[in-house]
Write a structure and sequence with these properties.
single chain, 54 residues, mainly alpha
Length: 54
């Protein structure tokens, strides 16, 4: 198979399919951290609810 990067991109209205080419400034966060923080907060909340309510 030929190199897929050399193939032209499909036509897109308003550039919606080419969003991956734009690099924005900001903090880069690993997706594992984004998923693990809310899960850990839920677990801590459940533990506090179970342990502190008689």
């Amino acid at each position: 198979m030929a190199d897929k990067k050399a193939q032209p991109l499909p036509a897109s209205g308003a550039g919606l399919l080419r969003f991956f080419e734009d690099e924005t400034k900001g903090v880069k966060v690993d997706p594992k951290i984004v998923v693990s923080i809310p899960i850990s907060l839920i677990v801590v909340s459940w533990l506090l609810d179970i342990l502190l309510i008689p």
